[in-house]
Amino acid sequence: MASSSSSSSQSSLPPAAMKDRRYINWAELPSELTSSILVRLGAIEILEDAQKVCTSWRHACKDPSMWRKIVMRGLGVEYDLEVMCRHAVDRSQGGLLEIEIWQFGTDSLLTYIADRSSNLRSLRLIMCNLKITGYGLILAVVKLPLLEELELSHCSLAGESLKAIGRTCPNLKTLKLNKFCHRDCGIVSDDEALAIAAAMPGLRHLQIFGNYLTNTGLNAILDNCPNLEHLDLRRCFNVNLVGDLEKRCLERIRVLRRPNDSTLDYPFHATIVVMDSC
C-alpha cells in the first residue's frame, strides 16, 4: 500500500514539477557555481566532457583562470595526452602556475610548456622517464625563472643534470626526488645529494624517498641548505641517523621523516624490494 500511495502522489505532480525532479538546466546555473564545479574537474574531464555540456559551460572552460593549474594523468587513458596538454597550456594564455604530468610527455612538450608559461611556479613530473631526458628538462627550466617547486618522482635524472637545474632555478624551494625502493641491493651513491648541496641552497622542503645517499651526502645537504625545514628520508636505508647526525637533524629540521618511518601517506607504491644485487 505504501508503494501504491507513493506512486499515486508522484503521478499527481504537475508535468513541470516532474520535469524539475529529473533535470537540471546546467546552462542557467550562476557563473560562480559553474566555476566551482569546473575547478574540481581534471583537465581531461574538462576538455573531453565538461565543455560539451552547453554553450555557457564551453565559454567558462575557455576562461584562462580555469587553467592556472593543470593535472593530467596518463593512467589507462587512450587520448593523445600530449596534444590535449598543449591545448590546456594554450588556454592558460601565459597564466599557468602549476602543472602535473603523469606517465607521458616528451622533451618537445616540456619546451612547449616552458615557452608559454614563464610564470610557472610548480612543475611535477611523475613516472615520465621514457621520453623526457635530463637535457630536455634543463632546456625547459632555464625558461622558468619563477619556478619554486620541482618534483621528479620515479624519473631518471643524473646528478650533473640535477646540478644544472639547480643553478638555473635560483628560487627553487621544494624538491621531490623519489624512487622505487630496493633494499640490500648494494647501491651506494651520493651523486644526487651532492648535486643538491652544490646547487640548491634555497631549499626549504626536500623529499628524497628511496634514495641511495649516505651520511656523507646528508651532511653535505645540511651544510649547504641552511633554510631546510622539511626533510623526508623514508626508505633511504644507507643513512644511519644516530649520534651527532641525528642530533644535527633534530636541531635543524622542523619536520623530519626517518628512513623507517611509515609510508601510509606516501602517494606512490612504497613496497620494499629486497634484492641480493642490482
Automatic annotation (TrEMBL):
Record CDD domains: F-box_AtSKIP19-like
Pfam families per the UniProt record, alphabetical: F-box-like (PF12937)
Domain of life of the native organism: Eukaryota
Coiled coil ranges: none
Stated name of the protein: F-box domain-containing protein
Domain F-box span(s) in chain numbering: 23-70
